[in-house]
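Title: Prediction job returns without error message
Component: structure pipeline
Severity: low
Priority: P3
Assignee: unassigned

Description:
Job completed but the reporter wants confirmation the result is attached to the right record. Sequence as submitted:
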Amino acid sequence: MQLGMVGLGKMGANMTKRLLQGGHNIVATDLNAAAIAQAEQDGATGAKDLADLVSKLDAPRAIWVMVPSGTPTENTVMQLAELVDEGDTIIDGGNSFYKDTVRRGERLQQKGIHFVDVGTSGGVWGLKEGYSMMVGGDEAAVGRLTPILETLAPAADKGWGRVGATGAGHFVKMVHNGIEYGMMQAFAEGFSIMKAKDEFALDLADIARIWQHGSVIRSWLLDLIKDALDEDQEFDDIAAYVHDSGEGRWTVFEAIDLNVSAPIITEALIRRIRSREEDSYTDKLLAVMRNQFGGHAIKREE
């Protein structure tokens, strides 16, 4: 199947490679000329810009957008909407906020253009292992993309599916990432407790290895933890600063809007934000309050 790929960052480039390996005809473009050149070396047809990409695709076209969420996705999708024809399909495979996806879908529908959202998980391992894809959009449009989705997935019948109308894919991916926050936090806290138990001199990598088989908490996250601990168990050169890409925040906001209690995901998000406070005023004020009501000593900065 022929597909246009817009955005050749790490994930976009890996998806392009996997599709090429699966025998698909890919026309690719990016703002970075070197990325286009690399895609051409991998077997794709390069396009200098969006207009060039559209001109090189046969109708009905299918164009996959893999650019950062927010303004880059908004601009790319709307530019493509002016270049493609009625009956063509634009796919957003990035981490867009689902309400933005619904709005974009409604605008494109007015032009007779299909809009499919694919919440994509798999990260840097997707090229080798395949991607988990949560797909939203019109059934017919998603059906036409089946060969592409089957190639990107871990197997043709595993790891992907249409979950609902346009916006549903990004909504489910948002919740997926919220769950991921909670799982990561639980693993981090558990290993931290074991690390602090000096008297047992626990080998954390060996414990992770034991848990990989038969344990109810075995998972891909645990596999990644095991690999990291094999290399280093001290992490002395790693800053205690954890980024969040937005989906966790959106999940918490959605839980509030829906009156759904989600304390674990919320606390995991707060912990990530807390990790960025190098000089926490919160902790200082807590120390002052303990001193005021209980006479507890305050540790002064040296």
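Comment from assignee: result matches the submitted record. DSSP finds 14 helices and eight strands in the chain.
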